[in-house]
Amino acid sequence: MLGAGQRAVREVVICRAVRTPRGKGSPKGALHRLAPVELVTHLLEHLVAHLGPVPADDVILGCATQTGDQGGNLARAAVLAAGWTTPALTINRFCASGMEAVAFGAAKIRAGDADVVVAGGVESVSRVAMYADGGPLHASHPLHMGIAADLAATLDGTTREQLDAYADTTRAKARAAPPSPALVPLAGLADDELRPFAPDTASQVPAFDSAQDHLVLPHYPQLAAIRHLHTRANSPQLADAAALTVLADRATADRLGLPVLARIVASATASADPIALLTAGQSALEAVVARAGLTMRDLGSVEFAEAFAALCLRLMRTHDLSHERLNPRGGTIALGHAFGATGAILVANAVDNLALGRYAAAAVSGAAGLGAAMLLDRG
User: Computed over its alpha carbons, how large is the radius of gyration of the chain?
Assistant: First the structure.
């Protein structure tokens, strides 16, 4: 029995997951002409059109580079532009921001501090370049993520051929995947896929050189050198996108007649050495599975942000994870990485993947050694 003032922990469900198309993260990209606030506003208006007025207690949005078009609490700007009266918050955990926004919303509902939360993320890399905020962390931990990926490949003994083969496989899955139920067309656009047909993966030259090796090698005296193996073809591509989820406690969803697509079982975050910075996503994934009392074998699918092919191959080897279960719709190497939005897109994909098994997980690594993961079941 609960004591005075205590509240029962509530069950959090996902009632709707939506996303924009992904556009190339360049001035030539399909979404470059739209400000990030317009991407989010489009999704908010879509939710109203399909669900009616959404009685959200809060809107939480993740965004990795909060300056210029993405500064000044972008979430609140989008809420006002859509004609909502809801409070709004913008958060930043770099590439994990969109997933963390969903986790924060779920935590508020679970604690009884909200009944309905709209949460997700946005990034317009074509309009607000990576590191454009000039933040102090970029100066104190300047290692490029591509160098960390090459470090992982060197430590694991991964070959260029293995990296290229993984990239070709994820592109093939992206081409074969059916349209996602979460995709909300925008100006008639579908995904502006980024080199889904790499003409010759093997002919690509390394994207990263030895200029930052001096930041890494003192930490790994067993290495004489770093093998620079990642290319544009086996690395994540930059993209513009937004994604949102509608979260509620189950009783509220039933009362409002909202559909229940999935239940959020648990979430987790992790921190890694900023030199080996891309390992935190796998650590968070392992933590969330253990927190739920499950094993990796219990997962029907895993959505894992393809922060370079080497980290995906490491995950597959460590947990005997097949290509069929990993990113069954293709990943960010094929379709693009929209920093603050990617985590929320992965959650939407995980909802779709529940057709493959009772449990689906999503995980992402971020800059400076941050990672987040979330576990869903069919609800």
Answer: 20
CATH fold group of domain 12-131+236-262: Peroxisomal Thiolase; Chain A, domain 1 (3.40.47)
Count of helices and strands (H, E) across the chain: 12, 10
DSSP 8-state code for residue 368: G
Q: How confident is the model at residue 6 (pLDDT cuts 50, 70, 90)?
A: low
What distance in Å separates the CA atoms of residue 82 and residue 289, rounded to the nearest whole number?
37
pTM strictly above 0.90: yes
Helix (H) or strand (E) holding 119: strand 116-124
In this structure, are residues 61 and 120 in contact, taking their beta carbons and an 8 Å threshold? yes
The per-residue DSSP string of 223-292 comes to -S------BSTTSPPBEEEEEEEEEEEHHHHHHHT----EEEEEEEEEE--SSSGGGHHHHHHHHHHHHT
Query: Can you give the length of the chain in residues?
Result: 379
CA–CA gap between residue 362 and residue 355 (Å, rounded): 15
**pLDDT band at 138; cut points 50, 70, 90:** confident
**Fold equal for 12-131+236-262 and 141-178+212-235+265-377:** yes
Residue 145: which pLDDT band, with cuts at 50, 70 and 90?
very high
Domain segments of the chain as ranges: 12-131+236-262, 141-178+212-235+265-377
For the four alpha carbons of 325, 329, 330 and 336, in that order, the dihedral sign comes to: negative
Return the SS3 of 102: helix
pLDDT tens digits, 31-60: 999 999 999 999 999 999 999 999 999 999
- pLDDT for the residue 187: 77
| 3-state SS record for 261-272 | CEEEEEEEEEEC
Burial class of 220 by CB neighbour count within 10 A (0 to 12, 13 to 18, 19+)? middle
CA 25/CA 344 separation, integer angstroms? 18
**Count of other CB atoms within 10 angstroms of residue 162:** 17
* CA nearest neighbour of 303 among 337, 339, 328: 328
Task: Decide which of 3.40.47.10, 3.80.10.10, 3.10.180.10, 3.90.180.10 is the CATH code for 141-178+212-235+265-377.
Answer: 3.40.47.10
